[in-house]
Amino acid sequence: MTQHQRAPSLCNTRAVSDAPGRGILPHFSGHSAALPLLYELDAQPIEQISPLVQRQMLHGVQATFVKWIAKKGAIFRLHHHHNEQFTWIVEGSCDVYSQGKKFAMKAGMMMIIPPNVPHEFICTEDMIDIDFFAPQRQDWINGVAPAAAGP
User: Fold this and answer.
1) Can you tell me the distance from the alpha carbon of 10 to that of 15, in angstroms, rounded to the nearest whole number?
2) How confident is the model over 26-84, as pLDDT tens digits?
3) Nearest to 66 by CA among 148, 133, 147
């Protein structure tokens, strides 16, 4: 599986079954209603971005979801992007620097970074970070390396 391929959808497994009459809006065309896709996050390919950073991600039509697994000392260098970014620290901690401020984030905290706002992350301990970007990260789809890859 290449780095940008997804693990198979779970839509053809026992996790998805028929539910006649449920989840249907009356007068809504079935031709314009796409079926949701179900994935197991841990089955997604793990990309080694740098010696200290790994990533798993999924791209939707309008957004990108990322699970970062970073070791203490990992750095996501100062950068910005046109995407709004929601960051949720699930385990560990990091310091985020933006606009002359230091934000000490620990497990359970969330940060919303507006589009085009410069920011950098320094992992102060091993960390799992869940990020959601909108619109989708077309730069990553096109193969551009993330800020965690280094200078």
Assistant:
1) 7
2) 776 666 667 888 999 999 999 999 999 999 999 999 999 999 999 999 999 999 999 99
3) 133
Distance CA 34, CA 2 (A): 26
127 exposed, middle or buried (CB, 10 Å; 0-12, 13-18, 19+)?
buried
Token pair recorded at residue 65:
């979801």
CATH topology (fold) of 42-149? Jelly Rolls (2.60.120)
Closest residue by Cα to residue 144 from 79, 60, 65, 98: 79
Please tell me the distance from the alpha carbon of residue 80 to that of residue 52, in angstroms, as a whole number. Answer: 21
Does the pLDDT at position 121 exceed 90? yes
Of 12-16, 119-123, 132-136, where does mean pLDDT reach its minimum? 12-16
Q: Give the Å distances, CA to CA, from 106 to 72, 88, 123, 124.
A: 13, 9, 10, 9
